[in-house]
Write a structure and sequence with these properties.
Length: 304
């Protein structure tokens, strides 16, 4: 069935006028006259059979129906623009849209981006974050980073970083309350995360902890909040390495029992199977693979 669409030029003039707040501002943005914008909007109102703007003094303001319609049209135009960018000429693209878990983005990916920009100084990496409970793969992204493996039929999956959990703590906390042996954990508060259930139980089991239960606990909704509490010396946390490698290297965190680690699922870079991979995207995938290997090697070295 053929789509019944209003004139696209009229839609664009209407969306810009509603967003810019006046016909004059819309005319400036579109590079046309005030009268041309007015005629396009009048044509759209005739096509819809509904008024989209009303006069208020010297200004034309969108009606409530017009404001609601403008929001939806704006989203649709954004989607068209993004799809056109992704499926257009790949050789000219200098922007990558990345979606990654929040803690991974904050502690591992973003601190390393300056090294990528040294290789591709004209590139722009736009990072959006998700939580560990968000398993969806929706959105207009060139690369989606998730832990897996999972059933990713429509994506090429590149495994680039293996991860393990271990106990981490602030050095200032351990100066006050040293951890010389596993049983000393009973003297501390354990910081846990609602989105990472079982982390402490798995680590304590690997450590053969036989101390008193329950030890003191404090729970937070997301790991990046738990991590901040650990950095502030509120208690002990179970955290991922090498994602926290920079915090450990900079002595913001210490690992009292580095030999006790619980493997976690690896990180994968997912790219749509049916989209041509631009040179920039291929460069990014090669870079993230190399960084993952180097990061893992650094985390395997003994602490000094």
């Amino acid at each position: 069935m053929a789509r019944r669409l209003p004139p696209l030029s009229a839609l664009r003039a209407f969306e810009v006028a509603a967003r810019a707040g006046s016909f004059t501002a819309a005319a400036t943005e579109l590079g046309v006259t005030h009268g041309a914008v007015s005629k396009q909007i009048q044509a759209l109102e005739v096509w819809l059979g509904r008024q989209l703007f009303r006069r208020s003094g010297q200004r034309m303001l969108p009606t409530p129906h017009g404001r609601a319609y403008a929001r939806e049209i704006s989203n649709a135009l954004d989607q068209i623009a993004e799809s056109s960018r992704r499926f257009g000429s790949s050789t000219s693209s200098s922007v990558l849209q990345i979606c990654a878990p929040a803690t991974f983005a904050m502690r591992w990916l973003i601190p390393r981006l300056s090294k990528f920009y040294e290789q591709r100084p004209r590139a722009e990496i736009c990072v959006s974050t998700s939580t560990t409970t968000d398993h969806t793969l929706t959105g207009h992204f060139d690369v989606i980073i998730r832990r897996g493996p999972e059933n990713w039929d429509q994506y090429d999956a590149l495994e680039f970083l293996k991860e393990s959990n271990t106990l981490v703590a602030s050095p200032t906390l351990l100066k006050r309350k040293p951890l010389r042996k596993i049983s000393d954990i009973s003297e501390h508060t354990l910081l846990s995360t609602d989105t990472r259930p079982g982390d402490w139980e798995s680590w304590l089991d690997a450590a053969s902890y036989a101390g008193e239960f329950p030890v003191r606990r404090q729970a937070f909704d997301h790991f990046f909040v738990t991590l901040q509490a650990a950095l502030d010396g509120v208690g002990l946390a179970v955290g991922p390495i090498p994602v926290l490698g920079d915090d450990i290297e900079q002595k913001r965190l210490v690992v009292p029992f580095m030999d006790i680690q619980v493997p976690r699922r690896s990180y994968f870079a997912l790219t749509p199977c049916d989209v041509d991979k631009s040179p920039l995207l291929r460069n990014f995938l090669s870079w993230v693979l190399a960084e993952g290997s180097q990061s893992k090697q650094s985390s395997d070295r003994p602490q000094r």
